[in-house]
Amino acid sequence: MSASKLRLVVSNPVAEQPCSCRTWGLLGRITRDLILCDFMDWARLLHQVQLKLLARGEYVAICELLARCPGRGRARRVMTELCAWANCARVTLELSPSSHWGSDVERLTNFYAPLGFEPNTESDEHFCVQEAMIRYPVKGRGHVRL
User: Fold this and answer.
1) CA distance linking residue 126 with residue 115, whole number of Å
2) What is the DSSP code string of 77-114?
3) What is the residue extent of each domain of the chain?
4) From the centroid of its chain, how far is CA 126?
5) I want to staple 117 with a disulfide (CB 3.0 to 4.6 A). Which of 20, 65, 77, 112 is the partner?
6) Closest to 137 measured CA to CA, from 74, 93, 71
7) Cα–Cα distance for residue pair 132/121, rounded to 1 Å
């Protein structure tokens, strides 16, 4: 058989299934904390990224994101997966870019903007911590587990 008659057929033996994320608002405090701990462990063990998350009611604050080997896309991979989970679980993410670890705020703001983060313009409430940037879940954009 000649090469011109060969046809490449790609098949995926594993059917796509919707992810198992549950809506954040339906979870208890302990379950929420365990999910965030799993994310932090996943980032540290598999991607060598220090990630610190804090549950604040219906919001999740990203307190720290620090790659051990910057410039390799590891922090971007962690943030992309975290944002996909947030879409699926209907979680609002918030953060404040900081120069504490050596990067400048403008560079960090440019890093977070393509991920859907925008300046936080929500009204200030008494005794409520408010971060500089916020990311609302995008409807219809959950992740699919293969």
Assistant:
1) 29
2) HHHHHHHHHHHHHT-EEEE---STTS--HHHHHHHHGG
3) 17-123
4) 28
5) 112
6) 93
7) 8
Residue at token pair 């462990």: 41
- The answer as to CATH 3.40.630 being correct for domain 17-123 is yes
Angle at 29 between CA 146 and CA 100, to 5 degrees: 80
Radius of gyration of the chain (CA): 19
The H-assigned helical ranges of the chain are 29-47, 74-89, 105-112
**Tally of residues, the chain:** 146
The per-residue pLDDT for range 34-89, each reduced to its tens digit, is: 999 999 999 999 999 999 999 988 899 999 999 888 889 999 999 999 999 999 88
> How far, in Å, CA of 81 to CA of 10, rounded?
25
